[in-house]
Write a structure and sequence with these properties.
The chain is an alpha/beta fold. The protein is built from 14 helices and ten strands. The strands form two sheets. A seven-stranded parallel sheet has the order 1-2-3-4-5-7-8. It has a three-stranded antiparallel sheet with strand order 6-10-9. Helix 3 links the parallel strand 2 and strand 3. The N and C termini lie far apart (44 Å). The structure holds flavin mononucleotide. Flavin mononucleotide (FMN) binds next to strand 2, strand 6 and helix 8.
Length: 336
């Protein structure tokens, strides 16, 4: 979530017991500064929980990389310099790249930086496990906001199918984390019931006070309902923004707008890009929304998000709600 995942957002999530991530993206120009700001925000709060990593001098947050566009050697230097608790990897050119990256990161950090890998199919999950033996496998379902596989299942079938396949393959020691469409405690409780140990939320944090996105984008996250209809998967956002290089199997889920409608009606990419750039220059409120052209990445869970809240409140409310649900249902079925 390059830009959106600010130091303040990552620090707030970590401070209340979640795991905040900052984005390495594909270029690392600003990363040093972002890491330092996150560290200084965390150290200015006495209430930051002492993580199990503290004794290792590991920074209590993660850094995400999009492998397809990153230089492994530069990423390894970042690990050596900053020692983050976690490196999150995603979307390599070849799944086998995960193995090279994982080995290099583990060597550079003396095994202190843990490896999380996000995948979107059963096949990818098995390949990533064989190549890199990640410490955590993140399973991204088709409801996820932002980039994802153009073809894939939602977490409701992806998580249990991966769980079973790993067990059959003798690799079920790896914790699974579900991503895609989860915005509250109900989603987290469901993810746990499916076999995950936790959940990732992306879109929900776009409506955090600390999110580094335009107000127009944030207003759309609050306004839009019925996310299965009002968002769609497409490569249009990459094509008009000129984001080139994503492996062919990826597209992105965003709120459907005028650009998508025009593309469907036969407008060329060139014309769509020109109109998009005009809107970017205008920058007023009307460039957002259904009749606008600004890119608003969001998952199908967008309809469940009604307010902008502090990130810490989002984490705590979600965790409490999940705990309440799991406890209530545990008691309900305990006599069977
Ligand atoms: C605006 C936005 C940007 C994202 N950028 C990245 C990214 O750079 N790398 C990555 O691994 N995942 C990225 N994701 C996907 C998340 O890792 C995660 O799979 C997703 O947000 C989960 O679904 P949700 O948005 O419904 O919560 C992004 C998601 C959003 C909404």
């Amino acid at each position: 979530m390059l830009g959106a995942a600010t130091p303040a957002l990552a620090a707030s999530v970590t401070r209340v017991g979640g795991i905040g991530f900052i984005a390495g993206g594909t270029k690392f120009d600003a990363l040093d500064k972002v890491v330092q700001q996150t560290v200084s925000l965390l150290s200015s709060h006495d209430s930051t929980p002492q993580s199990s990593h503290a004794s290792d001098n590991v920074k209590p947050f993660g850094i995400g990389f999009q492998n397809w566009g990153c230089d492994k050697d530069v990423a390894v230097q970042i690990v050596r310099k900053h020692l983050p608790a976690i490196i999150w990897m995603y979307a390599p050119k070849h799944t086998s790249d995960f193995g090279d990256w994982a080995r290099a990161i583990r060597d550079a950090s003396d095994n202190r930086t843990k490896i999380w890998i996000q995948v979107g199919t059963v096949r990818e999950a098995m390949d990533a496990m064989r190549a890199a033996r990640p410490d955590v496998l993140v399973l991204q379902g088709a409801d996820a906001g932002g980039h994802g596989l153009a073809q894939g299942a939602s977490v409701i079938s992806l998580v249990p199918e991966v769980y079973d396949a790993l067990r059959e393959g003798g690799m079920d020691e790896v914790p699974l984390v579900a991503a895609g469409g989860i915005t509250d405690g109900r989603g987290v409780a469901a993810a746990i019931a499916l076999g995950a140990s936790g959940a990732v939320m992306g879109t929900r944090f776009l409506a955090a006070e600390e999110a580094g996105i335009a107000k127009g984008w944030q207003k759309e996250i609050i306004r839009v309902t019925d996310g299965g209809v009002t968002t769609s998967r497409s490569t249009l956002c990459d094509r008009i923004k000129g984001t080139v290089g994503w492996p062919a199997q990826y597209d992105g889920r965003a709120i459907t707008n005028q650009g998508h409608a025009d593309a469907r009606n036969g407008m060329t990419d060139e014309e769509n890009r020109r109109l998009y750039q005009e809107d970017v220059k205008r920058g007023d409120d009307e460039v957002w929304g259904t009749s606008g052209r600004q890119v608003v990445y969001a998952g199908t869970g967008v309809g469940l998000i009604k307010d902008v809240n502090p990130a810490a409140e989002i984490v705590m409310d979600t965790a409490r709600e999940a705990a309440r649900i799991l406890q209530r249902h545990g008691e309900m079925f305990s006599k069977l």
